[in-house]
């Protein structure tokens, strides 16, 4: 696993210009969206909540992009199949890849959140209670990243699915405007996407002063835990299924 993490980080850090361009574009994209939503000005009353949401989105977008792009490239190059000559089980190798993806995703999310805070001169209040729901945001993002990686094992069309789902997330998880401003039916749909429930729970703690007991009693925290657990189980099952089929059909190194 450590060798896989080292290889992944060296590969990502070998081309820093790509990450710099990503950070510039992500920051401009977020600020541009907020200017549009504010009809030509930044709504500083709404920015802190949307910054929490956009941090979850950028973590999802970049971690899953690193994970999926590397996997597809290695499958096409044949090095993914060669990695299975190791006595380590396949899930260990995939967890190593997930560590690399999470490190890069967290770095991009951190910078892409701090820069708009400085530009707009806003702050996000810090409360220790918010660490739990935001940690669950990170876990369900990584679980969803694992789902996409499991699809990448068997299908080269995973790139289209990645673009579709991440586009839905940025539109509906609260990155453009707080979830409370959505129509009720759209808010229900949004909660089925990764990060949305976690962002909702985190913002309730940070901006509404609710405690963990409050978000437990209103059902937000239980649903978040259940959603994250289900996504973890689904990702593990789907990877095991697709991996077995690829080994059985001899498609580890090709689609």
TrEMBL record:
Name this polypeptide is given: ABC transporter
Keywords on record: Membrane, Transmembrane, Transmembrane helix
GO molecular function per UniProt: ABC-type transporter activity
Topology of the protein relative to the lipid bilayer: Multi-pass membrane protein
Localization terms from the record: Membrane
Keyword Membrane: yes
A single GO cellular-component term on record: membrane
Main location: membrane
Recorded superkingdom: Bacteria
Organism: Streptomyces agglomeratus
Chain segments annotated as transmembrane: 12-31, 51-72, 92-119, 131-153, 160-182, 221-240
Domain ABC-2 type transporter transmembrane: 13-207
UniProt entry tagged with the keyword Transcription: no
Alphabetized InterPro entries for the sequence: ABC2_TM, Nod_factor_ABC_transporter
């Amino acid at each position: 696993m450590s060798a896989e993490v080292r290889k992944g980080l060296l590969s990502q850090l070998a081309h820093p210009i790509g990450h710099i361009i990503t950070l510039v574009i992500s920051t401009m994209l977020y600020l541009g969206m907020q200017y549009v939503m504010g009809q030509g000005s930044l709504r500083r009353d709404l920015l802190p909540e949307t910054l929490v949401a956009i941090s979850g989105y950028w973590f999802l977008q970049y971690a899953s992009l690193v994970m999926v792009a590397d996997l597809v490239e290695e499958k096409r190059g044949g090095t993914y199949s060669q990695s299975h000559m190791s006595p380590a089980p396949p899930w260990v190798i995939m967890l190593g890849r997930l560590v690399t993806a999470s490190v890069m995703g967290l770095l991009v999310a951190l910078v892409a959140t701090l820069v708009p805070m400085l530009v707009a001169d806003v702050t996000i209040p810090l409360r220790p209670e918010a660490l739990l729901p935001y940690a669950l945001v990170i876990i369900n993002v990584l679980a969803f990243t694992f789902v996409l990686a499991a699809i990448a094992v068997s299908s080269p069309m995973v790139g289209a699915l990645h673009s579709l789902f991440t586009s839905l997330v940025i539109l509906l998880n609260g990155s453009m405007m707080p979830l409370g401003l959505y129509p009720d039916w759209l808010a229900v749909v949004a909660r089925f996407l990764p990060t949305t429930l976690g962002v909702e729970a985190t913002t309730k703690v940070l901006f509404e002063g609710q405690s963990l007991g409050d978000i437990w009693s209103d059902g937000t925290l239980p649903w978040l835990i259940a959603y994250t657990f289900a996504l973890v189980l689904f990702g593990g099952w789907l990877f095991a299924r697709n991996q077995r089929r690829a080994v059985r059909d001899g498609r580890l190194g090709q689609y």
